[in-house]
## 1
Amino acid sequence: MNESDKKEKFLDLLEPLLDKLYMYARMLEKNPQDAEDLAADTILTCFESFDKMRNENSFKAFLFKVARNKFRRKNRKAWLFGSYNEEKALNIPSNEAQPDLSYDVGVLYKTLAKLPLKQKEAVVLFEISGLSLKEIQDIQGGTLSSVKSRIKRAREKLTEMMNPVNEKKDLINPVISTERTLISV
């Protein structure tokens, strides 16, 4: 395969997945610029090793797996060499408005950030990126039932966290408040 055929074939496979790749990178990285960098690095790496791919049907899983590994490698380096305080960095006032983040999307990303990594990753890959359960299994490893379980648990936790009527119930002493005062007297 010559270079121009390689480029054309790669772009044909990549183009329908660009938005999904960016959304996945955005889920992993809290900063939009870091997400763009992750997506760009992923595309470059995938293009460089595109000749080695045997099956074009696994391109989607390959693309997302490369993104995941690049993110993990970056975080491993940050753990080894120290990291900056992301909370402070995110609170630095910006002179530019960010039109790509509406309030709802911001709330969703903040809520997603509270989920365990594997659950967050599974639900984003399935719901937002449109990957099949088998493709998610190839990326995350484990069994198909564990992938289904992660997605189910993530959905339940998201529903619970995003429910505006999230009342705290007294599970230890489920007594009406007037009865409680009578009992304690």
## 2
Amino acid sequence: MRTDEEKKLQKQNSDIKYPTYETLKAEQEEPEDYLLFIITDEAGNTIRKIKTDANKGINRVTWNFRYTPVTPISLETPDNTVPWNEPEKGYMVLPGRYFVSLSKFKDGKFTELVSKKEFVCKSLNNTTLPAEDTFALNTFNKKVAELTRSIAGADAFRNELVSKVAYLKKAVLVGADVPTATYNNIINIESDLRDLNLKLNGDQLRSRYEGSAPTSVKQRVDLITGALWNTTAAPTNTFIKSYESAASKFDDILQSLKTIDTSVKQVESELEKSGAPFTPGRFPEWKKD
């Protein structure tokens, strides 16, 4: 708004006042404006939120009739240059009545622009073996989605711990007062993380040199989402057994991950007590003399 006003003054050959500090600070801290479409089902449950820029003119937004993706949040822009790089997607909603509303976020608050409008999602009837019980299909997809979300989150957290280990090892060697035995603890943590990765993601080394390896928990779930979430057919017995196997093993994996996280926190505590240099994820302590 300020720059538009300055352009008008320039056309009138009028003087332009340099903005005050308060003005520049307010502009710097101004929240981003955007539009938010909220899609709900007949029961009022929120199915999807679609955020888009508040641009001038006629704009188009498309919903793919799917639930929100369950993969970890990423701030990176998806790479669309590779044709087979498909963006993450949730499972398909059931045919039925849905509603969409539109709100504007400006100056730190939401304002409804368009109240709920009804529309109907219909099946194309192009499935060779459509599911007879669509409610059961939706229930199964919901269970798979929750397991997928948890597995993806656990794997992302595992990666964070792996990244921490490299910093912890260096901190032990740099910190003059850190006990050398701490390094052995970190090596054990590193070994535990490798074992957990094998159970969660599979043995890539064995697959590369021997052609096959035991199916991991994540691979079993990926087998389901890669096929079932692209069709409206009922889940096969293979999909059901894969889910049951993955779900039964994931509890132990999650418990192991919690144990490893506790070990990492213990190492971080030792580093802090010994006055070691800062490492990512470690809260610094300070005592005033």
## 3
Amino acid sequence: MKRWIFVAALGIVSTLASGAAQALTISSAAVGSGRGCIDQACTNQTLKWSSSSGTGTGSLTLAANVLTFSVNLPSSIFIPISGGNDNGVTQLAFTTTTYSGSATLNPLGGGFYSILSGSASISGTQTPTGAGSAGAFSAANALLSGSCTDSGASVSCGIVFGPSNDFDFAVNGQTRWFTHTVNMTAVPEPGTALLLASGLLGLAFAGSRRR
């Protein structure tokens, strides 16, 4: 009977320990805010985030205060801040955008973390409306900031992809730097949850045998 309890408890501990380092599946992801700028410091802004359609997919891992992620967003729309146009562009769409990177986290307690440093690669297609032409874009070293929350049942992050380094491309011939926040929530993969449930059932069975 004690052996059953030990085996079941060991299964739960092992599951939790490995779950902390396993990839969690993205259950939702969308752009929360964003802007396009005419300078790298983003003091002069020309575009702002308007909407994000579709549910993002991907995975993230939070282990040893390091966050790694890979997220895909179907579509994000930016519009001119003035409401008219930016060098003839009346709307700019990011489509099939992929974000991959890692960040070092600062634990604040209670499951809260701030992002200390990190970088990401970003790639996708930009499609302007009104002027210019569509084209692929790619950034290899976009700087990261933001925060994450680990509730135990899920991990939620608001990751800011900054305009520094190479996150820029030409919008109808004019260089624009971009910064935006991607809000994402991830949950354990079904297999991990099933292992945990099996461990709990093992403990329940051991308890009933003891009674």
